[in-house]
Design a protein that fits this description.
heterotrimer, A mainly alpha (232), B mainly alpha (219), C alpha/beta (279), A: 232 residues, mainly alpha, 0% strand, C: 6-stranded mixed beta sheet, 4-stranded antiparallel beta sheet, 10 helices, transmembrane transporter activity (chain A), Polar amino acid transport system permease protein (chain A), transmembrane (chain A), amino-acid transport (chain A)
């Protein structure tokens, strides 16, 4: 492999990371806004949260990215492809993560809410000091699935010519024609990135579990070896 | 810019053909995912570590890497080994294998939900392993997996647009062809997107009806 | 009945409960009704509790005792009738001579002097013991952090947990958690303390340590207390009055000595016979 090709792969991987992290940041903000809206006491906010979640869970990243890049300019908005891709990723993952935020908030036992009320916390303080810190712990494991989905989805935006890993891989392949090496190598690189994200999220999960005085679950590799008891 | 309904009308037959192709890919991809996922789930409970661990690794690897790159791999690499698949066939195989890694988790939950006493009873009757699976465990595990599996039908459909990358004639590929001639991408892209969205909503609405009727399984 | 199990019993039994002479209507329920579906939990109930009085609510389950406490804590709203605390309506406001449904801020202000200890402790699992106790004083009452911490340490020492400031609730026994919950409740300087079956989730031994702490507190404070408990000996030791509930009504309202020694109502007699009392 030539130095130029290695450079393309490294650049592509960095771009993929950038897209994933940027999409995650946008998605996280949207997820909390929409998730909180969906448990709010205001009907209007609940409706807005519902529409956002339903619409963007239905709209695939590729559909959004295509539309942002090819259709929106006709309306007078010129989106830069990278930004368009990042927003498409964030909107999509945010809708899924909003449901996690909502579920985690609702999974905090009602007696915690009652105890906070007995301490006369205001409704925002109940959310911020009692419910959210506990809900956060429950959010992290499903969030780590989300971020892997996001990493995978970031490959999709290569179809609107964003020079990330999958796009640069195609460039290399069109140059050297070695399909097995190039695409196999790409898969391995994505697998490695996914592993890194999984490990980071695992560490976060353990930290969060400790922050509520809970013993963390066994390590990530048990997932790989998982086999619930086999019949004798 | 103004929206040209005549232009939209003229492209609809082609776009609907594309949607039909997308639905074919969905149906056959999902059928493959249902079968292969069950195979994965059973193999991952094998007593032999030499089966269990590599299968586990492969499943996790496929689930952790992008469908798009897997599609490239199928479409461009297999011909080097003398396997020539049409774009649609590659797409179906890619979707099916990718989603089998998800359905296998659903089956796993369903299998875990079969009470230990059932396994013990099968042992007490001295049933061979194959018989235990086919007549005791799976008949109980599979039905309770069905509602959760239906969610993946919708998820799979939403990934079908990616087949544009391997030139399957789904709506976006069709739309690209249309605006390459007309230089008017807005209507074509929008209509392709709308077709996908509407179909996804219809599917998830149907899924909800199924769920309401047969109950949910927690995965 | 004379408990030899607990060291505290003798002392408390010896010291007669002070006759109560405070304001007779510190807490006032007026014609309060509450139903869940077709099940009438409180039936046009009126009663009042004086400032500093300690009142135990007894009766079969489903007779409305816990509902009373949960209403005072504003966890439940009455269907009809009014509840007032220290002369202020809890769920109503007077506007232009009319009683109207109270705003959230009104409820919050009246509620600020009421707190509750729960059957399941309900400590905040994400906070260490000390922070469980300081969180509300700092963020609700606006006390300076170090002042709140100092007071919290005193209270935790009072409940015998001065050594556990840095533990998480999950690292404590049920009895210890409940004692933290008591300290947490006292830390907000309540005028009214509601104790809802605070030992029902505990083994007898752990229940005894919690009741000892509460006996101590009852002796040294003049907080108004409403208690729902099945620990009859404890109820006799600490309360000024006992209310017997049956089907959403109070059927007997007397000082503990009389209530336990010579219950008048037939329903009370059978109820007291059915309660196996150890604490």
């Amino acid at each position: 492999m030539s130095g130029e090709q290695v450079g393309l792969l490294v650049d592509g991987a960095l771009f993929t990371l950038w897209l994933t992290l940027g999409g995650a940041a946008i998605g996280l903000v949207l997820a909390f806004l929409a998730g909180l809206a969906r448990v709010s006491s205001s009907k209007v906010l609940r409706a807005i949260g519902f529409v956002y979640v339903e619409f963007f869970r239905g709209a695939a990243v590729l559909v959004l990215a295509f539309w942002f890049v090819y259709a929106m300019p006709m309306l007078g908005w010129q989106f830069e492809p990278v930004f368009a891709g990042m927003v498409a990723l964030g909107l999509n993952i945010g809708a899924y993560a909003a449901e996690i935020v909502r579920g985690a908030i609702q999974s905090v036992p009602v007696n915690q809410y009652e105890a906070a009320l007995a301490m006369n916390f205001s409704s925002w303080q109940r959310m911020r000091r009692v419910v959210l810190p506990q809900a956060l712990v429950a959010m992290i494991p499903p969030f780590s699935n989300n971020i892997i989905e996001l990493l995978k989805a970031s490959a999709v935006v290569s179809v609107v010519s964003i020079p990330e890993l999958a796009f640069n891989g195609q460039l290399i392949w069109s140059g050297n024609g070695q399909a097995a090496a190039v695409f196999g190598g790409l898969l391995v690189m994505y697998g490695a990135l996914a592993l890194i994200f999984t490990i980071i999220m695992r560490l976060l999960e353990r930290r969060a579990a400790r922050s509520v005085g809970r013993q963390p679950d066994p390590g990530w590799w048990t997932r790989l070896r998982r086999r619930s008891e086999v019949p004798a | 810019m103004n929206w040209d309904w005549d232009y939209v009308g003229s492209m609809m037959p082609d776009l609907l053909d594309g949607l039909w192709t997308a639905l074919l890919a969905t149906i056959f991809g999902f059928l493959l995912a249902l079968v292969l996922g069950l195979v994965f789930a059973i193999l991952r409970r094998s007593k032999t570590a030499w089966i269990r661990v590599p299968i586990g690794f492969i499943v996790e690897f496929i689930r952790g890497t992008p469908l798009l790159v897997q599609l490239f791999f199928l479409f461009f690499v297999l011909p080097d080994f003398g396997v020539q698949l049409s774009p649609l066939a590659s797409g179906i195989v890619g979707l099916g294998v990718h989603y089998a890694t998800y359905t296998s988790e659903v089956y796993r939950a369903g299998i875990d939900g079969v009470p230990a006493g059932q396994w013990e009873a099968a042992t007490a009757l001295n049933l061979p392993a194959r018989r235990t699976w086919t007549s005791v465990v799976l008949p109980q595990a599979v039905p309770r997996s069905l509602p959760a599996l239906s969610n993946y039908l919708i998820a799979l459909f939403k990934d079908v647009p990616q087949l544009v990358a391997i030139t399957v004639a789904e709506p976006f590929t069709v739309a690209r062809g249309i605006f390459a001639d007309s230089f008017r991408p807005f209507e074509a892209i929008t209509m392709a997107g709308v077709l996908y969205l509407v179909t996804a909503f219809v599917l998830s609405y149907l899924g909800r009806i199924v769920e309401r009727r047969y109950g949910t399984v927690r995965v | 009945m004379e408990g030899t199990k607990e060291p505290m019993t003798e002392a408390t039994s010896a010291a007669p409960v002070r006759a109560h002479d405070g304001n007779g209507e510190f807490i006032k329920f007026a014609e309060v009704s509450k139903r869940f579906g077709s099940n009438v939990v409180l039936d046009d109930l009126s009663f009042s509790v004086g400032a500093g009085e300690r009142v135990t609510l007894i009766g079969p389950s489903g007779s409305g005792k816990t509902t009373i406490l949960r209403m005072l804590m504003t966890l439940l709203r009455p269907d009809s009738g009014t509840i007032s605390v220290n002369g202020e309506y809890l769920f109503h406001e007077e506007r232009g001579g009319q009683l109207v449904t109270a705003s959230e801020s009104h409820i919050r202000r009246v509620r600020s002097k009421i707190t509750m200890v729960f059957q399941q402790f309900n400590l905040f699992p994400n906070m260490r013991v000390l922070r469980n106790v300081t969180e509300a004083p700092v963020h609700v009452l606006g006390k300076p952090k170090d002042e709140a911490a100092e007071r919290a340490k005193e209270l935790l020492a009072l409940v015998g947990l001065g050594e556990k400031l840095d533990a998480y609730p999950s690292q404590l026994s049920g009895g210890q958690q409940q004692r933290v919950a008591i300290a947490r409740a006292l830390a907000v300087d309540p005028d009214v303390l509601l104790l809802d079956e605070v030992t029902s989730a505990l083994d007898p031994e752990l229940a005894a340590e919690v009741l000892d702490v509460l006996r101590d507190i009852a002796k040294t404070t003049d907080v108004t207390m409403l208690l729902v408990t099945h620990a009859m000996k404890f109820a006799r030791d600490v309360s000024h009055r006992v209310l017997m509930f049956n089907q959403g009504k109070i059927i007997e309202d007397r000082p503990p000595e009389e209530m336990f020694n010579e219950p008048r109502h037939e329903r009370t007699q059978s109820f007291l016979r059915s309660v196996i009392d150890e604490t």
